[in-house]
Design brief:
The protein has 204 residues and is of the alpha+beta class. The chain has helices spanning 3-20, 29-32, 36-53, 74-88, 111-120, 132-135, 139-155, 165-176, 186-202; strands at residues 26-28, 58-61, 92-99, 102-107. It has two domains: 3-107, Ribosomal Protein S8, Chain: A, domain 1 (2-Layer Sandwich); 111-202, no CATH class.
Length: 204
């Protein structure tokens, strides 16, 4: 294959990917050349944000590592390991190799975060009588969080939810807040994520 034809095919594949995913659903690590540690941290944060946004399948581009000394990408290998970890944590559902240097990833439903934690038997988050973390939330956010906690308890089979709501609110908040990064209008984004979780529980 000539160099021109190879470049033309690569441009065609790029155009298809742009149309399928777009900038909001593409993480291109190849262009920024991060360290392995930075790539892993950035990818996990980005995938958690995409999970919270419920955007559907996304594209993660790692590159093949042809220019590295070993002839393979350390970043790619680290991201493959990260995918396995995020699947166990309930952040993603599936991963498939799109090209030798990219992957199509399907984020998990937000409710999967709680289910994954239960499977791993993680310790519950202690809930003080008046948790500061909840007290600083706006009333509208606390109201939606309470609804999420009540629905989660109902789905788990609790017939009397009132005694457990505060603790469940803390557990739900600790997991969901991790998917909503700091930044402008974080509280509004947190409420939107909580409403998405509530909708998932209502669909059960």
């Amino acid at each position: 294959m000539t160099a021109d034809r190879h470049a033309g095919l690569r441009a065609l594949h790029q155009a298809f990917d742009d149309a399928r995913f777009g900038p909001a659903r593409t993480l291109n690590l190849r262009n920024t050349l991060p360290t392995v540690r930075d790539a892993v941290a950035r990818t996990e944060s980005w995938l958690r944000e995409r999970q919270a946004s419920r955007v559907g399948e996304v594209l993660v581009i790692t590159g093949r590592g042809n220019q590295s000394e070993e002839g393979s990408s350390p970043v790619r290998a680290a991201i493959v390991r990260l995918f396995a970890t995020l699947r166990r944590k309930g952040v993603i559902v599936s991963v498939s190799e799109h090209t030798p240097g990219s992957f199509v990833v399907q984020p998990a439903p937000l409710s999967a975060l709680r289910e994954a934690a239960r499977r791993r038997r993680e310790p519950s988050v202690p809930a003080p009588a008046d948790p500061e973390a909840l007290r600083t939330l706006e009333p509208a956010t606390r109201a939606v969080l309470r609804q999420v906690a009540q629905r989660a308890l109902e789905v788990l089979g609790a017939h009397e939810t009132a005694p457990f709501v505060e603790r469940e609110m803390m557990e739900q908040f600790s997991r969901i807040a991790a998917a909503v990064p700091d930044g402008p209008e974080r509280e509004a984004r947190l409420r939107a994520t909580l409403r998405a979780v509530l909708q998932e529980y209502d669909d059960v």
